Description:
Chain A has 18 helices and 24 strands. Chain A is α/β, with parallel strands linked by helices and 499 residues long. The longest helix of chain B has 37 residues, at 287-323. Residues 319-324 of chain B have low confidence and may be disordered.
Amino acid sequence: MANLLRMTDISKTFGGIHALRNVDFELNKGEVHALLGENGAGKSTLIKILSGVYQADSGEIALNGQAITVRDPAEACHLGISTIFQELNVVPELTVAENMMLGREPVKTFFGMLDRAASRKKCREVLETLHISLSLDTPVRKLNTAMQQMVEIGRALLIDAKIIVMDEPTASLSEAEVESLFKLVGELKEKGVSIIYISHRLEEVISICDRATILRNGEVTAECQREELSLEKIIKNMVGYEVKERYPKEQHNIGKTVLEVRSLGADNLFSQISFKVRAGEILGLSGLVGSKRTDVVQAIFGADHYDEGEIFLDGEKLPPGNVEKAIESGIALIPEERKKQGLVMGLSIKKNIALPQLKSISRLGVINLWEETKIAEHMGKQLQIKAGSLEQEVQDLSGGNQQKVVLAKWLYTKPKLVILDEPTRGIDIGAKIEVYRLINNLAAEGVAIILVSSELPEIMGMSDNIIVMSKGKITGTFKNEEVTEEEILACAFETQGRC
Amino acid sequence: MNARGFIRKLPQYGLPIATVILFAFLSFTAPSFLTGYNIQNISRQVAALAVAAFGQAIVVITAGLDLSVGATMALVSVFFAIGTLKYGMFVGIIIALAIGLVVGFLNGSIVARFDISPFIVTMGMASIARGIALTVTGGTPVHGMSEGFAEIGVGSFLGIPNPILIAIMAFFVCFFMLMYTRLGRHIYAVGGNKEASRLSGVKVDWCTVKVYLICGLLAAVAGIILTSRVRSGQPTLGTGYELQSVAAVVLGGVSLYGGRGNLVGVFFGVLFIGILGNGLNLLNVSSYTQQIVIGIVLILAIVMDSVLLRQEKARKSVTVKQAA
Lengths: 499, 324
């Protein structure tokens, strides 16, 4: 097969630091080429150079054998290079068709009126070739992430994209949605579209890509065909050492019941949710995106209201919709979206850590700054937060370190119950393992833990017991050692019609 | 490295430097500018604006906005005068402060409860407050207060004019509140990230109500100062104060996007606006033209805010890369 794209000897520095050093990257027609590496390894920089966001300091890019320069994203678009970022670029209020045609709406010549018929026809054709059934008139805000992604892929095809870059496309998809995305990737391949695939989920990468390039510290450490790929090999090339145990599961003593949820229900969201978590137990909460897992844990934490049912912590009933009380009683929630829900990005590490404890460290409303510093120093050391100083704003930190700040802020509250909602999303493998260790340590100290995750291996690798949710109901409860991946998936699909 | 660090920090010192340049420029061009009388005049004029701007700053740090500051001052002015005539000055002051709190409470609770744009809510409130002030007085000033009524505005204590003392006190109370108290920290947190604050146990709605209460109260204090100075209840008092206070706040480096800024910056912002206004007066620039100047300054300040924020983001994405 001929090379469609060839990037040779690409280097890029930011303020004297090499983000990329002599990187070579090739892409064939109709190939899925995975780009792997830890956060900061240079994947995004390479992609941004390809899509015209950055300019390379040196090196060449050739498309179909012809040297090209990509000066800006518009030019990349023109060349048929389309990027689908992790944060989707859709306009929620516009419909599917309007989103797909955005920026190149066909017009009737008279007064520049929109040619709706033509635009709908084009959209329908594209969606049909991809076997996606989506109503063109649905406002995009009503679609789930997976569907929104399809809209973006459709848009890429409408501009005749020859190369589609997918940056962490499955980060917020559930297993089932991942499957349909993979099917779509297959369709795209058949149409001769090439795909650059970036993901932290290694199992998934192995199953979908034809070839993989692995980066570490801005350099290519390996390029191998699918047959040569293995989890161990990828990890070794990504982190530079072998990681024996990805999920360092330990056995702990499980104690008395800490949290008891009795037939919890909220309008149109979830109903009849009952379960218990005991001290030292890790309860995995699995389910597809849209199964309302997050809504349930937010309700337990008091961040969302519920209409029926009761929640008991250590035998005491919790009032609904009261975060402050939940924190006081000993519940901590590490939310799903670190940047939107977990941290105040413009505040320092110290002030972020202090936020939930302000009440306990202030007298008559005046904060004891000395104690605040002491807490931050203590937690920073305990969790090994890597930062120049604790006065540094959290937006300057890497994803893994930001997550550690969120953990620090909650662990200091000495919680009896810790709820972790997708705690390892988008952080690199080194940091992931640290998070797993931490969860184990907490369980060993007798803290009850609810682990919400879309990654089945993570759920199966970490939990003692597993609850599966589908469409707002619990569809399965298992002991970890007695359940297979297939059984969990079957429960996750229950009552879940295809969209 | 040091020179680089200084240049990077330059925007922070930009306003004090600009204030000094403006001061120097006026000292040369307007002969009566650098006289003891005029300096005292500036500080008196600036005092009321400063008090109102501190309140505005606190609201803006939560990513809010209060456009009813000027109208609140008018409403306060009218009822301060009427209350004083009927029940004496002490009760008049109580009534005045209470009115500020009521307006603030309405603003805050509507914004928080219905989660709507403070821009629209406070603009509507401004119309209501100004309307009441005009209706009650029939559009004419309230006169007839005794000499003692002017004491707050024109009197002095230990040689320092009262308005300035009040402004200094307001500064320190607000400064302390923002930097050292739980409420202050909540204000920055809510402005920086509402959702994360809520999930950290901060009562976001209450915090919003509180900042508008504070802003209303400070607007009332500013209204009392000005009313006392002119010794009459004026339904047209405080016109333009909403815009001037926003200009001072943004000039002072408080970001309209919330979560950033401090009162020291706002102090310089007020000084700049005050000196500018005074200078333009001395240079015989008409009040009509002055409005144009204030508008330009406001827009420039907001453009600067947005540009600086973008630059900082760009610089930060680079440092993150370096750290990684």
